[in-house]
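Trying the structure run again after the queue cleared.
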Amino acid sequence: MSRKFSFTVQYSVPVEELHRALTNDEMWQARFAGATTATLELTHPNGPGTIQIHMTEKAPEDQIPGIVKKVLKSELMLERTDTWGALTDGVAKGGFSGRSSGITTELAGAFELRPTAEGSEIEATGTIDVKVPLVGGAIEPLVENLLKRVMNSERKSVESWFAAQTA
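Done. Tokens:
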């Protein structure tokens, strides 16, 4: 059984600048510079002003919730691919997909980047499916919270990167 979700991450950065950062290789390379257990692949299959970000990371053992540790078959590897389209009339659409090994999890959905009075925001909507008998439904909210934490961490990285570019 899958779980639907929707949440919004607020940015203090104007939408044009946020889109420029999200589609910039240097920003993503800076974000992953200290991630020793992660890989990052950046491509621009749809041309300038667009990006595809493919990320993998081994989950640190001490950050894996107990309920997940009980059903892990091997080390927990996380994989996520984000895409961002061009900015058109102040809005950019994107998508994401993710999965894990060690526990069968699938994540998919859409992003919408749009302006706000204070800057901009990204709305994420999608579904999570953890294919583990009995406890999959209990793990799905954990996956949603992990995605929220990751996106808020990305917000901090983008805003720091943006501030360094304008300094």
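The chain is about 30% helix and 40% strand. Worth checking whether this holds up in the mutant runs.
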